[in-house]
Amino acid sequence: MTTTTFINARLIDPETGTETTGSLTVEAGTIVGRNLAPRGAVVDCDGKCLAPGIVDIGVKIGEPGERHKESFRTAGEAAAAGGVTTMVTRPDTTPTIDTPETLAFVTRRAREVSPVRVHSMAALTKGREGREMVEVGFLLDAGAVAFTDCDNVVTDAKVFSRALVYARSLGALVIAHPQEPVLTRGAAVTSGKFASLRGLPAVSPMAERMGLERDMALVEMTGARYHADNLSAAASLPVLERAKAAGLDVTAGVNIHHLTLNEFDVGDYRTFFKLKPPLRAEEDRVAMVEAVATGLVDVISSMHTPQDEESKRLPYEEAASGAVALETLLPAAMRLVHAGALALPVLWRALSLNPARRFGLPGGTLAEGAPADLVLFDPDVPFVLDRFALRSKSKNTPFDGARLQGRVLGTWVGGERVFG
Questions:
Q1: Is there a smaller number of Cβ atoms within 10 Å at the N or the C end of the chain?
Q2: The Dihydroorotase catalytic domain covers which part of the protein (predicted)?
Q3: Would residue 388 count as lying in a domain?
């Protein structure tokens, strides 16, 4: 049995909401206690932060079909370097993960080459086409942790409601990307003066609210478990608040880019800032940060979406959406801490504890008996990000050349060091 004691650590515990100084002992891959007499290998944290490993939901991997953009090996290495100990991956692959056989393939590939834990979501409808529901029961048996068509909105309310009813009967979690698809189609930025000056096709943030309103009505009708994966607009928050107050089994997440960037960062058509949904107004960004602070928005994720150079080096409206973020998630989130918007335990509640609980995964806590999935990091060390130093195959980050603070010093999965 491998035993390790971490001494002189700032222990960040999102479950108790505390930050304390002390030691943590792990044995055989499990946390066994705090402030015990040191035994086994000793890691001197030198006053740096020790927290549960990040549980990142919505990670895009290029296997199968787009391995040139990202593989399980490169994504796993990037995750470990970013303090992410669990990736929950998306089914928007080629082919779509909509059968037990495809799910078994990606599960096997991840187990073979990734240094971090990987759990896969499956599509909600076959081919993510919104017409025919997948075999939810068989995919659950094969290991799917949730069901989603990603950014393909199921426009047929009857199909979506039937899928929600069936998912509820099996206790399955449904993940949705709320948008009104007709309004959103072809949009590249958020509507407003900036979009008009740039001459770019735009969409109002109300499209997100309209999509969420529809979904909440269907969730109320069916009683399904539901998670909105990528909220970005202040207009959506009252809808979410009402749904939670009504007792619906609903949670929501936000992309780290929508917490730290706004519409003006697009600048002169910089395609690394083209995301889905598009970057919003500063008022929306501030509202989303406040929603995380109060707990209204439950989860912060990277929405890691690798794109190759050819798909980004195009006119803004034609370029692919998305950004890599496994390695930049933690330092970007430190912007919120250094600005005084979020305390570290609150931040880790959204990065680790809440996503672990929502997906029924172990981890997200420093409690005795929890898996020894840990990240040691210095929240203050400054650096300038060089995208070519990222471990992801694709380098499409909006933080290229940005001054950031916060660096991962070590990552452990099941008590075994996988980075640092």
A1: N
A2: 47-231
A3: no
**Domain assignment of residue 188, yes or no:** yes
| Tens digits of residue pLDDT in 191-240 | 999 999 999 999 999 999 999 999 999 999 999 999 999 999 999 999 99
Q: What residues make up the domain containing 175?
A: 53-364
| Per-residue model confidence as pLDDT tens digits over 226-256 | 999 999 999 999 999 999 999 999 999 999 9
Give the number of domains in the chain. 1
- The whole-number pLDDT of residue 288 equals 98
Calpha distance 122→102 (Å, rounded): 9
- What angle is formed at CA 342 by the lines to CA 337 and CA 346, rounded to 5 degrees? 120
Please report, rounded to a whole number, the percentage of residues in the chain having pLDDT higher than 90: 100
Task: Tell me what pLDDT residue 1 has.
Answer: 64
Q: Residue 297: left if φ>0, alpha if ψ -120 to 50, beta else—which one?
A: beta
Please tell me the distance from the alpha carbon of residue 261 to that of residue 329, in angstroms, as a whole number: 13
Sort 171 into a burial class: Cβ within 10 Å, 0-12 / 13-18 / 19+.
exposed
Is 328 strand, coil or helix?
A: coil
What rounded mean pLDDT belongs to the chain? 97
- Distance, in Å, from the CA atom of 409 to the CA atom of 65, rounded to the nearest integer, reads 33
* 405 vs 99: CA distance, rounded Å: 42
| CATH number of the domain where residue 109 is located | 3.20.20.140
Task: Please indicate, yes or no, if residue 230 is contained in any of the structural domains.
Answer: yes
Query: Which amino acid is residue 287, in one-letter code?
Result: A
139, 173 Cβ separation under 8 angstroms:
no
Q: What is the pLDDT of residues 153-188, one digit of tens each?
A: 999 999 999 999 999 999 999 999 999 999 999 999
CA 218, chain centre distance (Å): 24
Whole-angstrom distance between the N-terminal and C-terminal Cα of the chain?
Answer: 21
Strands 202-203 and 189-190: parallel
Residue 92 domain flag:
yes
CA 182, 184, 185, 190: dihedral to nearest 10 degrees?
150
What's the CA gap between 139 and 287, in Å, rounded? 37
Residue 333 to residue 347: CA distance in whole angstroms: 8
* CA dist., res. 126 & res. 124, Å (int): 7
Instruction: Give the global pTM.
Output: 0.97
